[in-house]
Amino acid sequence: MVELQAITSNGTQTVLSQEALEEFKGSLRGQLILPEDDGYDEARTLWNAQIDKHPALIARCAGVSDVIGSVKFARANNLLVAVRGGGHSFPGNSVCEGGLMIDLSQMKGVRVDPSNRTARAEPGVNWGEFDRETQAFGLATTGGTLTNTGIAGLTLGGGIGWLCRKFGLSVDNLLSVDMVTAEGEFLKASATENEELFWGLRGGGGNFGIVTSFEYKVHPVGTILGGMLIHPMENAREVLTFFHKFATGAPDELMMGAAMLTSPEGAPVVVIIVCYNGSIETGEQVLKPLREFGNPIADLIAPVPYSHVQSLLDDGFLPGRRNYIKTNFMDVIDDDAASVLMERFESVPSPYSAVALFQLGGAVARVGKEETAFYHRDKGYHMFLASVWEDAADDEKNFRWARETWSAMQRFSSDGVYVNEMGDEQDGLDRIKEAYGPRTYERLVALKNKYDPTNFFHLNPNIKPTAG
For 275, phi and psi rounded to 5 degrees? Predict the structure, then answer.
């Protein structure tokens, strides 16, 4: 181990001495991985293959003491810091160029308390792993729409998922956290301890520290009625407008998504994904009009384990592909909006790309807009435009398709943005403010001033401090 060049938090170069590196390595129960070490490339690689950054060093933490030591080492040496949980960040916030990557991916403990219907999990856990443990007891909580998404990032930004209309967002089911601050101090936050911080962590992202443990409320979730209806693309306008009409009267037990994508056989299709968490018999009656509408190519809805619905979109978002997203909220899907989406999908450059509309409402909307830092609770749908491709030579045309489609849909979109799915616009202050209401944003700035006044944690949709 020799001296190592690194990048500071303000972008200048610094040199880490051999002595400092040896001391840091010896303090870790986990690994210190340097560029010359075996496993470095694997450790720095994220789910989105478009991200190709080279941290000067990677602290692969084995526990809370490693997280505390990593934060203190970074602060003592004024290092640029990225924090990796599940590594699913679209814009690549989980890794940095030339700084310290604090890697939590090996912190995978999950403990379920079925008597009290709670579950506690560490930040390296993804939703597939979390569900595997909770489903052993017939329990679950709201957790995204892909199994390989990390629990940490998704929860801290809000947490839209297949159970949200019945149980609320992931943040609505968060009971407490353990956290390491920007000063390397350990604290707890809940509704009764550090209450204002707990408010801000429920939607404010990773701006205030590194959460090392999440405690969730979990609910009885067994066999659900779920799966896909697949329609030919030429019927997409009618399918999407009926989807909207049907969604407006849906019970809380039902969460749906509509998507335009390319089938494995290469045909463009429009699909409706359903997750009905309630009586199967009642669900069959609720879904009957949806299943009888039009002439679907296939009806794949059946009583299935909850984990089946969680994994339905996994094959469309495999690790190792290049990803670029643009998102917005929508309230209405009318003929004009459906027509524009159809027209735009005709020019999609990659068979892996998709347009998705995820239904909101229900329990999400019954929480006050300022009760948590997740503000946009009154929206009808979350619109998700995903360019996904494999060859770097195709970058520009895939970027362009997503941007132009997003622009074409602006007249149908409502205000705001889901902070978890911000792409390259995350560095724009106006767009960050759009993720929160005015008073919510002011409260988040006050929290940032208190817990991270030097903006130590800034590789995120950043809430900039005004103090210090």
Answer: -140, 100
Burial class (CB in 10 A: 0-12, 13-18, 19+), 116: exposed
- Nearest 5°: CA angle at 102, between 111 and 317? 70
**Which domains, ranges and CATH numbers included, belong to the chain?**
4-103 (3.30.43.10), 110-220+437-451 (3.30.465.10), 223-425 (3.40.462.20)
* Spatial distance between the Cα atoms of 425 and 431, rounded to a whole number of angstroms: 7
Measured CA to CA, the distance from residue 76 to residue 53 in angstroms comes to: 23
Query: Can you give the pLDDT of all 468 residues of the chain as single tens digits?
Result: 678 999 999 999 999 999 999 999 999 999 999 999 999 999 999 999 999 999 999 999 999 999 999 999 999 999 999 999 999 888 899 999 999 999 999 999 999 999 999 999 999 999 999 999 999 999 999 999 999 999 999 999 999 999 999 999 999 999 999 999 999 999 999 999 999 999 999 999 999 999 999 999 999 999 999 999 999 999 999 999 999 999 999 999 999 999 999 999 999 999 999 999 999 999 999 999 999 999 999 999 999 999 999 999 999 899 999 999 999 999 999 999 999 999 999 999 999 999 999 999 999 999 999 999 999 999 999 999 999 999 999 999 999 999 999 999 999 999 999 999 887 765 677 888 999 989 999 999 999 999 999 999 999 999 999 965
Between helices 236-247 and 335-345, what is the axis angle to 10°?
140
Strands 57-60 and 100-103, bridge-based pairing:
parallel
Rg (Cα) of the chain, in Å, rounded? 22
How does DSSP assign 343-405, residue by residue? HHHTT-S-TT-EEEEEE--GGGTTS-TTTSS---TT-SEEEEEEEEES-GGGHHHHHHHHHHH
Asked if 56 and 4 count as a contact pair (C-beta separation under 8 A), the reply is: yes
Beta bridge partners of 232: 269
Tokens 């052993």 found at: 136
Per the structure block, which two tokens stand in for 379? 């929206």
Q: For residue 457, what are its two tokens?
A: 């944690």
Share in percent of the chain as helix, strand, coil (round to 5): 35, 25, 40
Taking the C-alpha atoms of residue 292 and residue 290, their distance in angstroms, rounded to an integer, is 6
Single-letter code of the amino acid located at 350: S
Residues in a beta bridge with 220: 139
